[in-house]
Amino acid sequence: MQLRRFQDRDLIDVWQVATESLREHYDPTLFTQLVPFWPEGLIVIEDMGRTIAFIFGVLSGPQQARVLMLAVDRRFRNMGLGTLLTQELFRECAKKGVRQVSLEVRASNIGAQRFYQRLGFFVVRRLAHYYSDGEDGILMMRYL
Question: For the domain bounded by 2-103, which CATH number is listed?
């Protein structure tokens, strides 16, 4: 397995992992549109020539970053890949002087909330009707 920056050739695999793993459905062009904003924040794990996990973060303000998406192919879950990706994003954040990282997670996704809490995130507040299907989101934050 190889951890590296997102490349255009990853688009199909990333979109597939996102579609299978996340309940929000994103236009594939969104992924390539994010690259110019902060290429170091788009990190993938490749296995046997196929992207199996990714994290996409963006700089959201002075000393702030935001995790937009984190997804791992179902066949590769519970192997520490999400933790590895998140820690690599934290390293990239530190290089940019980022002091806080935020993200949103579905209120019903208790497993993801626990995962992020293990990585040092804490709940900031509930976001009413945050997702396209009307489900509430939970805003979480971590200081670096």
Answer: 3.40.630.30
Bridge partners for 116 per DSSP: none
Distance, in Å, from the CA atom of 122 to the CA atom of 65, rounded to the nearest integer, reads 15
What is the domain partition of the chain in residue ranges?
2-103
Spatial CB neighbours of 86, under 8 Å, sequence gap ≥ 6 = 55, 67, 70, 119
Residue pair 57/34 in contact (Cβ under 8 Å)? The answer is no
Q: What is the distance between the alpha carbons of residues 104 and 107, in angstroms, rounded to a whole number? A: 9
Strand, helix or coil for residue 106 = strand
Binned average pLDDT, 10 residues per bin, the chain of 144 residues: 94 93 84 86 96 96 95 96 98 97 97 97 98 96 97
